[in-house]
């Protein structure tokens, strides 16, 4: 740890500091590291940088944070964190994708006309910030769940602040949400999710994301074969772009959402032991999504184009790899 006293820097070990100042180019820390290596001899190995994904491998391989298929995750009865591998299939934006927050405490503010009130600060606030609050449906071929992404996680995915997307949306009144969010569709990622009390007692199918990774090696190891391949639009049409015929696109999006909602309802029925015929049991104990319930709603009788909207080819037809 470095201290600046009367224009001089002093470096030493410390365990009770509240701030960490990292700058490997400062001469004082460099000199300190060189002296440390010299004092410990040539057999001493010091690691200054580590693989940021290594701790994830450790969590999985050592069972610190176990891996779960979604069909197993929704059956969990204890509050805990788990890793899952899934593909983003739909953005749940009917309740918005961001919110306005107090700049001081980050609490969601209440808006009355053009005025904002923070319940935590207990006063009207003048300065607010926009923060992400986005739900996404994901699947791994065994079930569907909804993941809640907060500001940090969405920013890491989009690499743009919510304020920038909101300003762009104000300039384009034809769009109901930022087009940049469409880039999230069909992304395959490893998510660390938290099972909370509401997921257990209230059967809440929205799970909070703690962190995620797109590490290809991890995805190949833990993804089901059915989501390791890139499915084409004709067999898996998830797009939510509102370009062209906006009414038609919104109708398609609504149908996709209703199909996923129906599958979630069927999952809840299976959880209480009813409607066993709508699931497929396998020798490994994993319950697969019955694609027949989805393929039966593959086309829309109300259109002449027979729009293929939800036919996850291969889902429910292959066993997951042994982990």
UniProtKB/TrEMBL annotation:
Which Pfam family, giving just one, matches this sequence? Answer: Rep_fac-A_C
| UniProt keywords, alphabetically | DNA-binding, Metal-binding, Zinc, Zinc-finger
Residues annotated as domain Replication factor A C-terminal: 84-201
A Gene Ontology MF term for this entry?
Answer: DNA binding
CDD domains attached to this UniProt entry: RPA1_DBD_C (cd04476)
Region Disordered: which residues?
A: 299-323
**Which PANTHER family has this protein been placed in?**
OS03G0429900 PROTEIN (PTHR47165:SF4)
- Give the similarity note: Belongs to the replication factor A protein 1 family.
The name of this protein is Transposase
Species of origin reads: Solanum tuberosum (Potato)
